Amino acid sequence: MTRPAPNTAPNAPVLVVGAGLSGAVLARELAEAGWPCHVIDARPHVGGNCHTARDPETGVMVHTYGPHIFHTGDAATWAYVTRFARFRRYTHRVKTTSRGAVYGLPINLHTINQFYGKTLRPTEAEAFLATQADTSITAPRNFEEQALRFVGRDLYEAFFKGYTQKQWGCAPRELPAAILQRLPLRFTYDDSYFNHPYQGMPEDGYTALTQAILAHPAIRVSLNTTYTPDLADGARHIFWTGALDGYFDYALGRLGYRTLEFERFTATGDYQGCAVMNYADADIPYTRITEHKHFAPWERHAKTTCYREYSRAAAPGDIPFYPIRLVAEQALLKRYVARAKTLENVSFIGRLGTYRYLDMDVTIREARAAAAQFLAQGGTLAPFHINPLA
Ligand SMILES: Cc1cc2nc3c(=O)[nH]c(=O)nc-3n(C[C@H](O)[C@H](O)[C@H](O)COP(=O)(O)OP(=O)(O)OC[C@H]3O[C@@H](n4cnc5c(N)ncnc54)[C@H](O)[C@@H]3O)c2cc1C
C-alpha cells in the first residue's frame, strides 16, 4: 500500500488507523502533547474488539466480540484506565463442564478433590498430583506433553484435550508447550481466574471507556472509514493498529488467525449462574457459553443474554481474533516484518499490527510507550516499537 510523502511541519496531524484501545490510547497521549490526531475505524463503533453494547431485548451490557475482563499487575496502567472510567469490582471465575459434571478452573484444590473423589489437603494434593504426572517427559515438546507432565493423563483428557482441540482446530500435540504454561495450577481453594492485584469492569462498558479516552479537542474520530491512502494526505505519521498483512493488501499471503462465531440466545432469569461456562468435551461443538449479565453483578435484569462460542480458522472477510503463530505463520510474519521495516513514517502497534495476543493492559502500556518514544524523538518512530518476532 502506498502513502503520500509525510508532512514534516511541526505538529502536523497524525493518522491513527483503528479506534480500539491501541489507537485510542496512542491518540490521547499525542493529543495531550499538542499533536492533532485523526483516528479512523472501519467499524461503526470505537473500542475495537473490546466493544460493549446494551442488548436491545434484555438491556444487558454485552461484550460483542467475546468476554473481556480487565486485570493487571501494573499500578500505572490501572491508574490510567480508572482516570477515564469508573471500574467496579469484578473477580472472574470460570466453570467447566466435563463428562456431565461441573468443576472450577483453573485446576485448584476443589477441582482435584472433586475429580478424584478425595479430601486432600494442599501438600497431600501436590504429592498426589506428582504421582499422576508423567515424569518420563523431561523436556515437553508440545502442549500435550506439557499437560501430561504437569497434571497427568486423567486431568489432561478431562479438561484440556477436547477444549484445546476445539479452540485451535488441531491436535494438542501440534501446539507449542508454551500455551499451557500460562494456566496456573493451585493447591488452595482459590478459584479466581486471574492472579493480578487490579481487576475490574468499567461500569458503563469498554466502549464508554474508549470514548472517554478519545474525548480530547485535538482528536477527530471518523467511524465507518476504512483506510485509503488519501486519508494520509498531509499527515506526519501513520500509526497502524490494523492487521500487519492487511497494510500490504496480503501481498505475501495471509497470516493465520482463529475467528469466533457467537450464537446469541436469550432466556428468563439466570441461565447458567456464572459468566463463563467452558465445555471441555470434544463432542460438544462450542467451546463455552458466556452469560453477559454476570459481568455486571451490580445490575438487575429480568432477562438474560448468552453467547454460545464456536472457534474456527479465519477465512478472508472474517474478523481475526487469535493469531496462530505456529511455524508457517512465523515464517510469513518474518517476511512481512522485513517489508514493514523498509517503510518510513508508518508504525505498527497493537494486537493486529504486531500479530500477537495482547491483553488490554499490555495493549495500553505498549501504546503509551510508543507515543512516549514518538514524542521524545520529535515526531518520528521506527515501524516497530517492540519486536513482533520475539
Ligand atoms: C475473544 C477475546 C477475549 C479477550 N479477552 C480479554 C480479557 O478478558 N482481558 C484482556 O485484557 N484482554 C482480552 N482480550 C484482548 C483484547 O481484545 C485486546 O487486548 C485489545 O482488543 C487490543 O486492542 P487493539 O486496539 O490493539 O486491537 P483491536 O481491538 O482489534 O482494534 C483494532 C481496530 O482497527 C480497526 N481496523 C483494522 N483495520 C482497519 C483499516 N484498514 N481501516 C480502518 N480501521 C481498521 C478495526 O476495525 C479495530 O476496531 C481478548 C481478546 C479476544 C479475541
List the helices and strands and how they pair.
Layout: E1 14-17, H1 21-32, E2 37-40, E3 52-54, E4 61-63, E5 70-72, H2 75-84, E6 87-88, E7 94-98, E8 101-105, H3 109-116, H4 122-132, H5 143-168, H6 178-181, E9 198-202, H7 206-214, E10 219-222, E11 237-240, H8 244-247, E12 257-268, E13 276-279, E14 288-291, E15 303-313, E16 322-323, H9 327-340, E17 346-348, H10 350-353, H11 360-376
Parallel strand pairs: 1-2, 1-11, 2-10, 7-13, 11-17
Antiparallel strand pairs: 3-4, 5-9, 6-9, 7-8, 12-15, 12-16, 13-14, 14-15
Helix pairs in contact: 1-7, 1-11, 4-5
Flavin-adenine dinucleotide is lined by residues 17-23, 40-43, 48-50, 66-70, 226-227, 241-242, 246, 260, 321-322, 350-352, 358-361, 363.
Structure description:
- The protein has helices at residues 21-32, 75-84, 109-116, 122-132, 143-168, 178-181, 206-214, 244-247, 327-340, 350-353, 360-376; strands at residues 14-17, 37-40, 52-54, 61-63, 70-72, 87-88, 94-98, 101-105, 198-202, 219-222, 237-240, 257-268, 276-279, 288-291, 303-313, 322-323, 346-348.
- It is α/β, with parallel strands linked by helices.
- Strands 8-7-13-14-15-12-16 form a 7-stranded mixed β-sheet. Strands 10-2-1-11-17 form a 5-stranded parallel β-sheet.
- Strand 7 and strand 8 (101-105) form a beta hairpin.
- The protein is globular and about 70 Å long.
- The relative contact order is 0.21.
- Flavin-adenine dinucleotide (FAD) is lined by residues 17-23, 40-43, 48-50, 66-70, 226-227, 241-242, 246, 260, 321-322, 350-352, 358-361, 363.
